[in-house]
Amino acid sequence: MELDEAERLEQKRRKRRQNAKNKRKRRKNEFSGWEVDFVEPELTPDEVKENTALYDSKLPLIVRMERFIQRYRLRRKWSDPVRLRLFSMYLAFGGIATGQKQFTGGIDIDNAEDAAEIATQSAVDFIDDERMENVEDVDFLWVVRTFLSSYLQRCAGIVEEAHLALAAQLIRNFLRSLLHNNVAPEFADNIREACELCVRAEVELVSCKRLSVALPGRLQNALRAIYTERGLWDPQERESSMFNYSGSAASVTESTMTDAETVAPSSSFTATDSPTITSTSETAAAVPEVENMWEEDVNTPATEPTAMSSATVSLHADAVRRFTTEQAIEYVTNVLGPTALGGNIVDSEDLLVRLESVRPWTNRVAMPTSGPGEVPEQLVEASLRVSDPPGSLYPQQTKRTQFVVLFENSLLTNVRIGTYLEATFKFLDNGLVILDSTMSVMPTFYEEYDD
């Protein structure tokens, strides 16, 4: 009798091993699960029955999620180490630790009678009970919003465009599988909202990254050269007598003022009410269009040269990114008129602002030109409102509420209204505002995360 029992167990083990081997063979010829057009296959009756046992709504959410994550890992190919790292970071941020269980109770997995028991014993992802003590606090949307908009770049240091887009893609893949398998039906609406946010995030994160690299733009670079850089890119053998080191450009020579065209009073630079422009597409297909626009406008490599490569890169005053004082004065005079040179810096503040609206700037006196055949660049007024985002613990200490900054139109073409910008601004007494340095650009769904 004992021998028959032993044979039965051995046959059961062999059958299970063979089934596992067959599954591995099939998996080699199957999709990786990360394809752009990948759709979860329809569940068979047996799979529906198995899922019912694994994800019974009467079970605690913690148990259901641990089982699902284990099976999700097995149903995806993790050959890309970046994807695996991003997924582990996302789980950890949501309160799920990854590691081998210390105690398995001494039960042989090969002898487990059902899928639920096997999933429980072999799971390597564990939810922190204290962080999910109250199931009412579970919010898939908040985790996605905060992880993608704040934690990913500010805490984890993920800044490459491809990695930012990949993070949004894999989280959406995970959440869609969660819905497909009906793991947490009580949170279905919340999970769907999180999926929709991932679609937006894939476009916005790339757009914000490219804007942060392109800022402050040609006009702002010229203004910085006049008011804040103090001849940083001037030839060493001569010093410009046209620049006042007290932070003023009032000492521009009389000949320069005479040659320039007349302009409207300095009050024309002050903020005005502006209608909201239409936002860009939220589909992933918009990303290549953004990329083409930036490649034509920025005229710089996707990555900044490092110190090691400086020997092969010429850091000269190109009158686009870097200006000599003379180049900057000529450019600003052509674009804004000579009154833009007569201001003084009266204030400087580090602010977190939100893009409220963008409208064409119609007060220009001349179209900027710096070379034959160059297409003139249209300027726009960007209305920026000082804003404390959701999750902010401390309000900004400033009396300013809203102001306007002039940018090239191409800088903001693919930027959504509501995008956040953290930067240092210089305020002039002639109404101009200079974007002196940019700390970060965050998407419209930005929420601060306090670690």
What does this structure look like?
It holds the Pfam family Arb1. One of its GO terms (biological process) is siRNA-mediated pericentric heterochromatin formation. This is Argonaute binding protein 1. InterPro entries: Arb1. Residues 1-10 have a biased composition (Basic and acidic residues). This protein has 451 residues and is of the alpha+beta class. The protein has 2 domains: 31-210, no CATH class; 215-442, no CATH class. It is 40% helix and 12% strand. It has a 5-stranded antiparallel sheet. It has a two-stranded antiparallel sheet with strand order 1-2. A hairpin with a 4-residue loop joins strand 6 and strand 7. The longest helix is centred in the N-terminal third of the chain and has 28 residues, at 2-29. It is elongated and about 100 Å long. The termini are far apart. Residues 100-113, 118-123, 237-248, 250-313 and 366-370 have low confidence and may be disordered.
Strand count, sense and barrel status of the largest sheet are: 5 strands, antiparallel
**Strand and helix order:** HHHHEHEHHHHHHHEEEHEE
Q: What is the beta-strand fraction?
A: 5-15%
Report Rg: 29 Å
Instruction: Compute the separation of the termini in Å.
Output: 61 Å
Shape: elongated
DSSP strand count? 7
Query: What strand order characterises the main sheet?
Result: 5-4-3-6-7
InterPro entries: Arb1
GO molecular function, one term: endoribonuclease inhibitor activity
Biased composition (Basic residues): 11-28
GO cellular component, one term: ARC complex
